[in-house]
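Researcher: Next entry in the queue.
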Amino acid sequence: MWGFGLLAFVASVPVAVLTADPASPVPQAWLLTTIAFTWLSLTWPRPTLPATPLTLITLGLVALGGLVAAWLLDVSWSEVLRTGVATPLHAAAMCAAYQWGRGLLGSPRRRPNPQVAPWRNAWSGEWAPTRARDLMSIAVSAFLTAFAVIPLGGMPGLYLGSASGQEIWDWVIRTTVTVFIGASTTLITFGTWSRKEVGRALLISVSALLVSVVILIWVFERHALEMAWLVLLPTLYVSLQARVWATSTYCLFLGLATLTILPASRESLGQDPVLPLTDVVYILIAACVLVALSTALLQESRSHLLAALDAESARTARNLKVLRTAFESMHDGFLVIGPDARVRMHNSAAALLLGRPIPERPPNGSWVNYLGLTRVDGTAFADDDELLSTEYLALQRPGQERRVLQMRYTPLTQNLDEGVMMTFVDVTDHQQRLKDLSGFAAVVAHDLRAPLTSLEGWLEMAEESLGMRRLEESVALLARARASNRRMREVIDDWLRHTVELEGELVFTDVALTDLVNEVVAGRAGAGPQDVWVDTPHAVRADRAMVRQVLDNVVSNATKYHRPGELPQVQITSTSDVPGWVRVEVADHGVGLPLGEEESVFEEYRRGSAHHAGFEGSGLGLTLCRRIVEGHGGTIRARNNADGGATITFTLPAANGVPAPN
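Model: Structure for this entry, 662 residues:
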């Protein structure tokens, strides 16, 4: 690119000489500054100009070109030297002024083009105009620097002390137009050109250029300068139909065509005493170029914005799809209600939790009535407004279990009137858990307080007996204290097993029932005399610790609930009448189960009717048994015996489907 700039600059020297006015050495087309500006930008460091070798070489060649051009124009040696100094200074001043103007106006960098080399992207990001204000920065910089070099003799034959005001003004206008058109078009073309749609862009540009040249020739030959504005029509067509680099290339050749045609028609156009008509044409062409490039840059910016909008729309659509999927996969129900009380959107969980399809508006005009929502205590809401001020709701459908929902609402904006998002969470299990905790608190208050009171009383009495040296009485009292302590331990153990052991995973192994039952029976021997008969020859595939807990709880109940004065009698048997399963039965001859409450004994904290009130228990033992058995895939049942007492039956998976060896 630097070599191309060198060739273009060398070619501009004979152009300056050939376009000189015979009556004056002032050239009609001074392209040296225009090409030197673009050429120097390739090596111009930002924001200062250090003395790099390539920059110094470029400035030296620009000075040499000015010297040669001035020498060929046959001017004095002082003018030759002034031109050699002013030409590189003019180009450097243009670079500095343009960069300063871009920084002052806050112009954005040009977007990288993936179809061009990285170095060209870096260069175009610093120099290629991106907005109309960059074009104005070039025009203003060209105008101000053209005036600034006049005292230095920046043009052969044109010096502040020897040239008239008309000549200076004429040179400033032509130089400003030339630099503006040449610099802006070459910067844009070099910075944005790519192979994409070259054929179509060139066809449009060449066609429009031919039309413009014909218009200019016709205007100059007919002396119809007022019709020169027609050049604007093909110029606008190119800016609207072609890419920005094609538009800038068209404008570049339009400027060259004007510089070629206009000097030949200078005499026929005549001169105006205030503003030469040739200068009017120059300004008109510059205005056309400004409009065309501004339109093309706006079109380019619009294309980038539309592409960004499309990309953002696609990204938003993808994000919306992800959010919609997440929205639909949530277990909590969501309702978005607008300011007009219409449901804008909802997820499937909301319809599932509320038990009904959710329309935009309730058919009967009230969401409370349509959804069947009540307060937790079962009382009805006064209206829909009260719904927003209630956190917990109850939902009861015919033939369905009562559910408790927690409702929260969040305003979509700071203004509540613009709509809200309502969240519904099923807290039925949580409420039941709270109820269970309340029941447990009651159990603890009752079952631990009594043993603690008894323990304290027996210990005080034992202390008094020991003080009176009544050893036998003290031993009996300490035994009762020990029994109270054991009762507290059983209550605590039941709760710990209920809340901790069931949270873990089951570890399945082959378990011989006989060994496990004998272990449990031996562990219960300290509870008092009892008659236990065991016939369990089978083996099960189960978690040994959990099965031991089931047997311990069931056997404990069988020995506990006996008639006063009678010896507890328990029969423990196992059968395998269903392939793959072992049925275990624990039968006693005690007080039996309350009629009609055979299955309710497995509910939490359920301790039976009043005729069991004299027996200690937490109401958790059989609940724990049911959960363990069902965790193994089996079932557990309770029934009364025909000859008195009760039988607890449960099933467990068989070990390999065959009885264990004796």
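Model: DSSP finds 20 helices and 13 strands in the chain.
Researcher: Noted, moving on.
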